[in-house]
Prior knowledge:
Blueprint: E1 2-10, H1 13-16, E2 21-26, E3 48-50, H2 52-61, E4 66-70, H3 78-90, E5 94-99, H4 108-116, E6 119-122, E7 143-146, E8 163-167, E9 173-177, H5 181-192
Parallel strand pairs: 2-4, 4-5, 5-6
Antiparallel strand pairs: 1-2, 1-3, 6-7, 8-9
Amino acid sequence: MINYSDYTIIENEHLYGPGKRLLIFLQGCSLHCKGCINKHLWDFGCGKNATADEILSICKDNAVEGVTLHGGEPLDQANGLLEIVILLKRHGFTVILFTGYNKKELRGRQLSVWKMADLIISGRFMEEKKNLYMQFRGSTNQKIITHKGPYKGYKPTDGKTVAIFTLNEDGHFTIRGFHSEEIEELKQSIVRK
């Protein structure tokens, strides 16, 4: 079982990976990177719970290519996440992992989840190395790692920035993606209206 803040079905390769994907924002992060745009995901245990079977059902019902694990810090929930990743892989779904950890820091279940992921975005966000014009990564120290499988040799498309704006029926406004100055100005103009 994992604890998550939110999930959505999305098709935006520049931000979250190839194809139609289940994007899950896991709740809780022990890393607390300076300048993090997801500070609301730092606290543990205040999200919703989901089992491996529930995640699999969402994937099947929405005919997704795979799952993108975002956070918070997904590997801080490696105990529950490993069961989910095993089940997803057994059913042919791809897994993309966004983590602030580097491989050398990992042991046990964290390392097992890492090894099963098809594509990994690895490394802590570093505000002093911020670059919003790279695919998947927010700072230049972060790496894209591929394993054998459908994304082996994946080439990122750098040079642009992307954000997804969402306004729900309750009037709640969110931005997913990179928060450049232009995006923040646009956000402020929308919020004022």
